[in-house]
Every structure is written in structure tokens, then in C-alpha cells.
Specification:
197 residues; lipid binding; START-like_dom_sf; seven-stranded mixed β-sheet; START_lipid-bd_dom; 7 strands; alpha+beta; Alpha-D-Glucose-1,6-Bisphosphate, Chain A, domain 4; elongated
Length: 197
């Protein structure tokens, strides 16, 4: 993907309020429990196509990014939680593992998505394949289109609320080591900028 930094796509995927602008299949999504700086448990429900019953998930989500903020990983797997039992009108689906990998490159952003899910309930195989292809493809296309507008939108919508950018202890240590290692490079760049003026 050209012209969209990996960091922006990462933020778009994480931000539950902005997700409503690009995920038109989402019915509801909310945080159930914040485990630590890089792990949470959340609820997500979607409107299914055709005559298929709507699905919902309770997933544990984990994430990581490098100190340079150029490489990002988000992955999920289903997790039972006493605060969110199965509810009427939805079939509780199960994610064995799903996630995203994003990396900024010279040509733009390298982006991967994978999903290993059980939709549960009774659905013909052809219908599962069709629905998965249609839904995932449509959601990813929409994510790419809406990513460009994210930073401007976020500046007006709870700009300080970005828990997915917090660092845990080992990430802080990584960042400190990275900053110390590249302090000379930064000073050299600043000197060059001053000389240009």
C-alpha cells in the first residue's frame, strides 16, 4: 500500500470509535477488560450477509510495535469471559487465531491479514467461503480508503486517548536503547538542517 504509513493503519485498526467509519459490518465493539499495556479482552459483533445469523466474538488481543514505530503486530484469539455470556440474536463464533502484520518500507506499507475462525452454527461450506471472501475483502478495502483521513479525525476526537501506543516495561527498555543508539544520528540531522538555513 502506497502513501499510507504502517503506523496510521495500526492506529485505525485499534481505534474502536474510528472503526465505525471503515468497518460497515460491525454492529458493536467494546473493551471488556484491559489486562496490561499490550493485552486486552474485547467484544465484537458483525452483521452477516444473506440469511445467515449475525455473529459475535469475545477475543483476547495482543499487540507489539518496534521502537522506531515502523513495524506492528496485532493478533487475537477467542476467550471466554464471565461479563459477556452468549446472547440472543447472535451465534458466538470462535477465533483460533487471527491478526495483522504491518511494516513501513521504501515503497509504502507491507500489510498482511490472516484469520482462522470457526463461524459455528450451521452454515453450508460454500456460504462460509463466499461470506468470508466478501466480508474480509470489503473490510480491508474500506480500511485502506479511510486510513488517510484518520489523523485529522483523531485530532478532533479524543486525541489523547491512544492506549495502543503505550509501552510496557520491556518495550520502554527497547526504546531507551534505540534512542541512545541513534542519539548521534538525530544530532547530525539537526546540524545539517541548521546548516541549510
Amino acid at each position: 500500500m502506497k502513501d499510507i504509513p504502517a503506523q496510521v493503519i495500526y492506529k485505525c485498526i485499534h481505534d474502536p470509535d474510528y472503526r465505525k467509519t471503515w468497518d460497515d459490518r460491525m454492529i458493536e465493539g467494546f473493551l471488556i477488560e484491559q489486562i496490561d499495556e499490550c493485552n486486552d479482552i474485547g467484544y465484537y459483533s458483525v452483521a452477516m450477509p444473506f440469511i445467515i445469523s449475525n455473529r459475535d466474538w469475545v477475543n483476547r488481543r495482543s499487540w507489539w510495535h518496534n521502537p522506531e514505530m515502523t513495524e506492528f503486530i496485532i493478533f487475537n484469539f477467542s476467550h471466554k469471559h464471565p461479563l459477556v455470556p452468549e446472547k440472543s440474536g447472535f451465534v458466538r463464533a470462535w477465533s483460533y487465531k487471527s491478526g495483522y502484520y504491518m511494516k513501513t518500507t521504501e515503497k509504502g506499507t507491507m500489510f498482511y491479514y490472516f484469520g482462522w475462525n470457526s463461524w459455528n452454527g450451521w452454515i453450508p461450506a460454500w456460504c462460509v467461503n463466499k461470506a468470508t471472501k466478501t466480508m474480509v475483502g470489503g473490510v480491508i478495502d474500506s480500511l485502506m480508503k479511510q486510513s488517510a483521513a484518520y489523523e485529522e479525525w483523531k485530532s478532533k476526537n479524543k486525541p489523547e486517548d491512544r492506549p495502543w501506543l503505550r509501552l510496557n516495561d520491556w518495550q520502554r527498555k527497547e526504546k531507551e536503547e534505540y534512542d541512545a543508539k541513534h542519539a548521534g544520528d538525530k544530532k547530525e540531522e539537526e546540524t545539517k538542517e541548521e546548516e541549510k538555513k
